Each structure stands twice: as structure tokens, then as C-alpha cells.
Amino acid sequence: MMTSQPNLIFLMPDQLRADFLSCYGADFIQTPHIDSLFSRGVRYADACTPSPVCVPARSVLLTGINAIRTGVTSNGQFLRTDLSECGISTWPEMLSQKGYMTSAIGKMHFYPWEASMGFQHRMICEDKRWLNVKDDYYHYLKGYGLKKFHGNEHAGYQENRGAIISRLPWEHSWDYFVGEGAAKYIRNYSHNRPFAMMVGFPGPHCPYDPCQKYADLFDPADMPDPYPEATDQPPDFRQNNIRGNLGPWNGVDYSEFTTAHKKKIRAHYAGLVKQIDDKVGDILSALEETGLQDNTVIIFSSDHGDYLGDHGLIGKGTFYESSIKVPLIVYLPWADGSTVCSSPVSIEDITATLLHFAGCEIPTHLNSIPLPGLGIQTDRIRDRVYGFLASGCMNYNGEWKLAKYTSGDVMLFNVKEDPAEQLNRIKHPNCQEIARQLDAELTSMMLRSIAQAHSEKVIGTSWEDLEFGDGGWQRTYPMPIGSHDE
Q1: Which CATH superfamily is domain 7-384 in?
Q2: Where are the alpha helices (DSSP H) in 1-135?
Q3: For labelling alongside 1, which of 35, 228, 446, 478 has CA 20 to 30 A away?
Q4: Largest Cα span, the chain
Q5: What is the model's pLDDT at position 178?
């Protein structure tokens, strides 16, 4: 292994499910550039997001602590502004302190959108739904007399349930702009220190808007069939999904959602994935041209998946497989070959992995631990993934998955035997022991996380302290997380 600090690149398309990559078994699409990352390093066959909604997942990644502890359990929340006073640093802050030049290119989903969150350099191309954000991409388009388009400004938007052809030429599209920006950053990099770059592709998030030449590559008839809606699926799953998508950000009515609609969407989604694969190829070419490929660790993953019609749903937000399962590949330039890790892993562990490769000490308060299979020595091993959102929670051990929702619904699936999650076994007599075990583990994790989420409120004294007893004692607030026992 190399002794100097490697460059680090974290590639993160938005809302990419694992089974739309050829290296994850998709036979209807070829993604050679993404697949090539697997030539050296590790592909994680069972990678999950702990929080299958954009901002909660990204907040977990930034801090390495779970969504209960960040307090970000929905897209309507964001990280507190006094993180530093609480003793919490983002991974780009820690890498910057370690001598890295940190850069964020593309979608980050910060509030406010121009916040640095520890990155020293940003080139911003935000969410495809944030049309009024005057980011770098907005000014780029304006320079060409173009603009960001809402999905409803495209022909067939409602009829095809969000599957459209982009009005922007490929060379001016969202993902092209981000891919070009990342490749240019690599080619022009001249600092005498390593860089750590996060690249956030806005696609393949909806609207499902590939450019014409990429849409033409995929026939809806060739797309895999969506999973049906189970007979005992909670009715509010679909009702809430329909209601949420009627909002002005989307404005599509999914009350009628046919198989033809779903396969059309899947074909367009595949087109978006293919676009991103081509831009990943350009980024890899830039590394090769500059001679940096042999000293650059690359991590490829996503924040969550997309139902794409599975269970009668679109988007994400529950703990169904198509919502939580994401690709995760780590390219190690010093590796002799490739391996597959089949144990369950969480994308929250990307944070500790980046810190390790940068030579940073991993704070003990993190939930994040280094990913397995990379030769990293650690005393902590993940054998299950806990997930948290405002709407529910999950305990997944690689075979059994328990999900509990604020509606009161509880779902237990054996995803090895029932990958389409059609049979909820929560009431099956022969499944009560595993249900109790998963529930006890989940309850314990939740209670510990709730306590840790309030660490800044720790008093930090006792009735024995003379200063406290004399009066006039001043409480430290917020109490930094590392200054007291948890």
C-alpha cells in the first residue's frame, strides 16, 4: 500500500438503485465505466442507506452519526449551525485540517444551498427540482441563453408520469455539467497537497429526463417488471406517495400507475444512468491523463434508491429494498484484483472510510466505522444496518428485515427468500422469535441514539462541586460531545 496520502474521490449519483448497473447483474444496460471501478477493490453486494430520503442520508454521510442523533429525519430539516461547538466536525472539515484540498462539485443538498459544510471549494449544480436556485449551473445556462426547466415544461410529462426527453442538449444538461466540472478540476489541479473531491450527480433522480440519444438506447419492453403491491401493504404507503408527488415540486398524479407507465419510467431512468456512466468515464480519463489514477481512492455510491413502480410507488421513503439498496464500490489503486463483500453494510460507513484513508483519527462518537474488506484494522464490525427516518425505523441483518412505521404498521420480511417483499411475516407464529430479537436490538439502538442526540445538554457538574454549591455557577452549553462520558 502507498505510504503518502492518496487523493480521494467520492462519486454519488442521486437516487441510484443498485440493480440498474451491469456490475450488479442488470442485463438490460451496460455501465462499463462504473463497472471498471470494480477492477481493483471491493464491490458491496448488500449495501444499504440507513435513511432513504435525500437530506437525512446526506447528513449522516457528512457527520458519520445516525439520523436520530443529527436530528435530520426528513427533507424539511438540516444540521444545526453550532456543530463545532457541539464537538462535531464534518468529514471535509477533518480532511481539510489534515492537509487536503476539499472540493464539492454538483448536488450536495445543503441548507442554505451555498453553504460550505467544510468544503474549501464548491462548484454547485443543485437538485433538479430547485429551479430558482442561482447556482453555478444557473449562471452557466444563462450564459448560453438557456434555463432550468420544470418537468411540466416538457411534452408528455403528466401522461408518461414524469418520463420525458430533456429540452436541454446533452452538452448543457445537469449531469454533463457536473461530470465536466469534475474532470476539469482534476486536469487543472496544481496544489502540492492531495485533494478530496465529492461529485454529486443530480441524476438519475426524477424527473426522468434523459437526452434523446440516451433515451433511444432503451426499450421499455426490455425493462424488468416492477414488483407488485402486496395484498397486505399498508394503504397509506400508496396514498402518501400519491399525495406527496402532487406537490408543486413534481406535480405528477400517480393515482393511475400502469405497468406501461412504470416500464417507460424505467427505460428513461436507464438512460439517465447511462449518461452518468459516460461522465464517470470522463472523470477516470482525466485521472489517467494526469497520472493520478495510481494514487486516487474512488468510492462510488448513492444516497438511496428509487421504487420505479415497485409496490405501486415512485421515489423513495420506506424501508423496501428498492428504496434502501444502493451500489457501493471502493476502488483501491494498490489492490491486485477485486473482491465481493456479501455482508450487509451501510453507506454511513463511507465517512469513517474516507477519514481512515486520509490518515485522520476516527472520532469515537461516530456511528460510522470503516467498511470491511479494505484491510482496515478495526475493533468494530457491522453485522446489521439500523435505519431511521421521521416516518419509521429499520433493523436489517442481511436476511431478515424489521421495519416499523409511525402509522403503527410493522413489517417483517425475509429478503433472501422473498426479495420482492410480498409476504409480511410479522404475525407468523414461527417468526416471532426473530421478530422479538430484531425489535429488541432496534429498541436498544434507538434509546442509545436518543440519549446521544442530547449530549449537548449534559450538565457537566454534580452537587459535590464547590463552585456549584456556592452559587453563580455557569452552565456550559452546548457541551461538546467529546468532553464527557456518554
Answers
A1: Alkaline Phosphatase, subunit A (3.40.720.10)
A2: 32-36, 54-63, 67-70, 91-97
A3: 35
A4: 79
A5: 98
Asked if the bond preceding 204 is cis, omega within 30° of 0, the reply is: yes
Inter-residue contact 30 to 122 (CB < 8 Å): no
Q: Map grid coordinates 440498474 to a residue.
A: 20
Q: Which of 217, 120, 123 is nearest to 177 (CA)?
A: 123
CA torsion 478-480-484-486 (nearest 10°) is 90
What span, in angstroms and rounded, lies between the C-alpha atoms of 45 and 23? 10
**pLDDT for res 485:** 56
Write the CB contacts of 203 (distance below 8 Å, at least 6 apart in sequence): 13, 14, 128, 174, 175, 272, 273, 275, 276
pLDDT of residue 57: 98
Quickly count helices (H) and strands (E) in the chain. 13, 14
C-alpha pair distances (Å), 382 with each of 79, 107, 277, 348, 398: 25, 29, 30, 11, 11
Which residues, listed in sequence order, are joined to residue 389 by a DSSP beta bridge?
392
Over the stretch 301-360, which tens digit does the pLDDT of each residue have?
999 999 999 999 999 999 999 999 999 999 999 999 999 999 999 999 999 999 999 999
pLDDT at 469: 84
Domain segments of the chain as ranges: 7-384, 457-486
For residues 245 and 297, give the distance between their C-alpha atoms in angstroms, rounded to a whole number.
38
Contact indicator for 164, 209 with CB cutoff of 8 Å: yes
Q: Report the pLDDT value the prediction gives residue 304, as an integer from 0 to 100.
A: 98
**pTM greater than 0.85 (yes/no):** yes
CB 293 within 8 A of CB 284: yes
User: pLDDT at residue 132 above 50?
Assistant: yes
Q: How many CB atoms lie within 10 A of CB 98?
A: 17
* pLDDT (0 to 100) of residue 1: 40
Question: What does the pLDDT read at residue 378?
Answer: 87
Q: What is the model's pLDDT at position 467?
A: 82
